[in-house]
Design brief:
258 residues, alpha/beta, three-stranded antiparallel beta sheet, 11 strands, globular, disordered C terminus
Length: 258
Amino acid sequence: MGEPIIEIKAVSYRYDRENVLENINMEVQKGAFIGVVGPNGSGKSTLIKLILGLLKPQKGTVSLFGQTKFKEWDRIGFVSQKANSFNSGFPATVFEVVQSGLVGKLGLFHFMKNHHKQEVMKAIKSVGMENFTKRNIGELSGGQQQRVFIARAIVSNPDILILDEPTVGVDEMNVQSFYDMLEKLNKDRGITLLLVTHDIGTITNKVSHVACLNKTLHFHGEVEEFEKLDTDDLSGMYNHDVHLLSHEHSSRGEGEQL
């Protein structure tokens, strides 16, 4: 196994007097699809900010691609809960929004060449939005907007895509197809995915690994091992009762899931 894309060693963080993260040790290997789960206030958003360099660890280290002083941020794509708060009056087409993801590589005032336009279309097709390229972004549903933001994040071909609760604003009927799309990105484009979500019961047949966070890291391992945990184990991680639900597994058979 090669060097991990993300390596978190003994990381702790606190706001004022409140500990948010305590002694976190975690790795994300190239090609993984990891779901980060936990209750509200468990430190998931703080962990993402530490990975993205928006916060600095008060204890421990965060390494990206083997570097603690990482600067190649175009290798990391990030999608937040934008669809829930996006300005629907923003005057830009799907194509224009996705091509803006190349600004970091091209510079603000450089013109796109044909191969750049091809990369934009490739990213749009990867998220199933090729029939909406000329549509104004504000005319789309929340789920469609999130797909466009994902295309914008991957148009520069990052090594890893980090998503923070991406199904906020996505219609419940379309959540499964949304996760199908993420699985396809992971397998077909080889993009490593780190997904913060509360939908663990929906995605355990998609992810390869699970990290269960509640200030400390209660579980970090392969999804098959996570599915072996019983109700008491999960309730202890969440500090409240958690019930296991049985879902249909499209690719790995059936099993009990949260």
